[in-house]
Amino acid sequence: MPLDGRRGVCFHRGMSTGLIEIRRAKPADATAVAAVHDAAWRTAYRGLIPGLELERMVERRGPKWWDAAIRRGSRISVLLVGDDVAGYVNYGGNRAKSLPYGGEIYEIYLQPLYQGLGFGQRLFAAARRDLAMARLEGLVVWALADNENAVGFYKALGGHEVASSTEQFGTKSLDKVAFAWQR
Q: How buried is 22 (Cβ within 10 angstroms: 0-12 exposed, 13-18 middle, 19+ buried)?
């Protein structure tokens, strides 16, 4: 059974009709997850994160990095459209111990072609259910404050801003915000 508890069919121009499924990533998915990461990061962060820093971050996360993460048991789930990995979500225990939430979504990304179709909501819901099953109640996710798409996405899902911080990217400091959900 897929992690999202259902199978579906997609009817969208430009995509063939096929099965939609969310499941745990397998080592064989590493190259496809790296490709999603590459395309999604270049789309989401171009103009926000300085170019050289963005290139370094993308290149660090190649297929070998994802293969190692999957093999060591990181919670990474993929969204399949037919046989294609269209997106992924990476999640686990909350890393910010000052925040009273058990779970955290570290990353949720889709290939640009699949954005805006509701697939991100399905990945989010699947990760949230899996975290709850692991008794990691409550959820937090961080986003760059200037990433309007991410901020809008989390607000539309009912996230409430609960913290802020900054992150350094080379010589540029960027604000980030934490969104949270209770059980």
A: buried
